[in-house]
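Predict the holo structure. Ligand: adenosine-5'-diphosphate.
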Amino acid sequence: MDDFKKATGSLRPQELEAVYAISRAVAEAVNTEAVLDEIVQLARPVFIFDNMVLYTCCQDNNSLEVKYARAIGRGRFHEADLAWGEATAQQAHLTHEIVTQVEGAGSNEPDRTNIRYSLGLPLYTSGEELGALVFIRFGGPAFLPEQIHLAEFIAQHVAQLLQHRQLVERIADLEARRRLDNLQEDFIATISHELLTPLGFIKGYTTTLLREDINWDETTRREFLNIVNEESDRLRELIDNLMDSSRLQAGTLRMNFQLIRLDTLLKDIALRAQSRNPNLSIELNLKSPGLQILADSTRLGQVFDNIINNAIKYAPNSKVVVTMTEFGNRAHISIRDFGPGISPQHLEKLFQRFYRVPDTSTSVRGTGLGLYICRKIIQAHHGEITAESTLGEGTTFFIHLPLDPNST
Ligand code: ADP
């Protein structure tokens, strides 16, 4: 800071004010482009220029690319923000020296404003190449030493701004990688556990059944075989979910859209849920029968299945109410349970891949993939899915789907 004071001692009050305003803008920077705009506005009254161009280093560190360009000077360049001065920028970048150049000054040039006076300032910090800042004047005059001195201050601040931005990007990158690592670790732990559990049952019961020293009676044998059968289904469902999830992530899940009747689909799903869970009390409230939508009935069925199964898993013994109404050009479907509910901080996260409410009972098996898949499928139908919940009162999932225009 003392160095800064010493160095700025040579500036006039108006210039000093501009330099301080620039350093304040850089210190408070949130959006790099907006701060550069502000720098242009603050610098222009004390330091005449027509263009300011910021070149930053490409990944290879040898070449430069235009990061920002503003033309604020002579009228003829108002229509676009043009990037000039690449040669000046290259030279300043490679030599770490301040460079002044005059371009387009051939003896045949009748228009003085076609002659470009450029001033290139290298941008670097200890050990780090950042790029170069170029100021251009069309038709002169040439940059004077005290103006170059002022431009140096501006360049120092721009370098500081770039360094800060790089730091922010690097932190965000590290954070994203750390989150990804954690997610992958969690994923492997969850998936291994989820796959190993049914596999353990299958292996255990088949080994038991194969024992030659025991003669199992028919009832026990059937009971064991039923468990093997159910656990194989569970394994299949898990693998299907995993595959759907990775196809959805990669955008390669194919949908087979056809015109379907929503009430018929919902009745089928409810019947299936009822037959699999004889104790389930499911109420269908289909207020607008005959609504038609363009849908992949298997995939849409999978969504309703998943939400009803969740109600059975997480709100055991609760009634499930399925309602369908028409509003505007959309079908509104809600699936409600009267279970323990979900606290607000978890609600929106439910639709993220692998998200499970942390205090969910460990006895309820799941991977946190179901609702993620549901949202992706609904989005592929140009619809929306949301959830509302009150602790102790229950949870409602809402699905909105556009109706087929010919069916209304
Ligand atoms: P999974 O059931 O495999 O864990 P889902 O994506 O289907 O995955 O659900 C995510 C989480 O949302 C569940 O782990 C559970 O914590 C919570 N959840 C879903 N539906 C309900 C519900 N009806 N009531 C309470 N919690 C629910």
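The first strand starts at residue 51 and ends at 57. The domain at 175-250 is CATH 1.10.287.130 (Helix Hairpins).
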